[in-house]
């Protein structure tokens, strides 16, 4: 897979390092010449210049690119890069980094963004997901189709415990995609039984996510009480 990453800061470099370790072709854009040839990013192709300029993007061969990751610390730049990648080069998939949560609403298909990743929102979600057992926490918003990735940690004594996945009345447009149990990821089947402290991961529409949250909240009110 050929991936273009715009922005060689901490976020962009981390993504590039991971992709290189998986043998993907990586092209990195940045405006600072001093970033070229970083020892931890050997194997990457470097383009120095303003990625908001079409001429600079052409140097990176975006017309042959599978994914563009706009990972700068500037939301405006990330939006422009995503839009140009989609509208001018027809890149199949774009990922946009959201620095200011107030700008998250802009990162949608109108700006050519398939997946918006809000670092502050994700960090907050991971913290909440770790401490707020019993609440549905959104981790990512997938702008194409308006889907979301969310997580739910099953409280002990919740009525859903000991129920087979196929017997749970999941709301429409909600799909259970993974279960994390004792640190081990499980691909769920209908015969799997929900256990306390399971972390359930869902892909759903925003409406489905709201219905999922309501389902868990309503069920939680009927938890059995110990004497």
The biggest beta sheet is recorded as:
11 strands, mixed
C-alpha Rg (nearest Å) = 21 Å
Taken together, the total number of domains comes to 2
Number of E strands: 11
Mean pLDDT: 86
CATH level-1 class of the largest domain: Alpha Beta
State the share of residues found in helices, binned by percent. Answer: 25-40%
Strand and helix order: EHEEHEHEEHEEEEEH
The main sheet orders its strands as: 3-2-1-4-5-6-7-8-11-9-10
Class inferred from helices and paired strands: alpha/beta
The CATH superfamily label of the largest domain reads NAD(P)-binding Rossmann-like Domain
Percent of residues in beta strands? 25-35%
Distance between the termini: 58 Å
Oligomeric organization of the protein chains: single chain
Number of helices: 5
Which outline best applies? elongated
CATH-derived topology of the largest domain: Rossmann fold
Low-confidence stretches: none
CATH architecture of the largest domain: 3-Layer(aba) Sandwich
Keywords: Ion transport, NAD, Potassium, Potassium transport, Transport
Domain RCK N-terminal: 1-117
Pfam families: TrkA_C, TrkA_N
Domain RCK C-terminal: 137-218
């Amino acid at each position: 897979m050929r991936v273009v990453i715009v922005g060689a800061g901490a976020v962009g470099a981390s993504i590039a390092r991971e992709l290189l370790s998986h043998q993907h072709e990586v092209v990195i854009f940045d405006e600072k010449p001093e970033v070229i040839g970083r020892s931890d990013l050997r194997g990457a192709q470097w383009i120095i210049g303003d990625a908001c300029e079409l001429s600079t993007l052409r140097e990176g061969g975006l017309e042959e690119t599978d994914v563009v990751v706009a990972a700068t610390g500037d939301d405006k730049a990330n939006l422009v890069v995503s839009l140009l990648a989609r509208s001018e080069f027809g890149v199949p998939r774009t990922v946009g980094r959201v620095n200011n949560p107030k700008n998250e609403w802009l990162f949608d298909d109108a700006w050519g963004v398939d997946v918006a990743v809000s670092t502050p929102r994700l960090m907050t979600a991971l913290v909440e997901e770790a401490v707020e057992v019993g609440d549905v926490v959104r981790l990512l918003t997938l702008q194409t189709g308006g889907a979301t990735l969310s997580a739910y940690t099953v409280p002990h004594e919740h009525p859903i415990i000991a129920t087979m996945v196929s017997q749970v009345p999941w709301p429409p447009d909600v799909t259970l995609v993974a279960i994390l149990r004792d640190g081990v990821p499980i691909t769920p089947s209908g015969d799997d039984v929900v256990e306390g402290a399971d972390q359930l991961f869902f892909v759903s529409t925003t409406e489905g996510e709201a219905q999922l949250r309501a389902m868990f909240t309503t069920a939680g009110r009927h938890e059995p009480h110990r004497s």
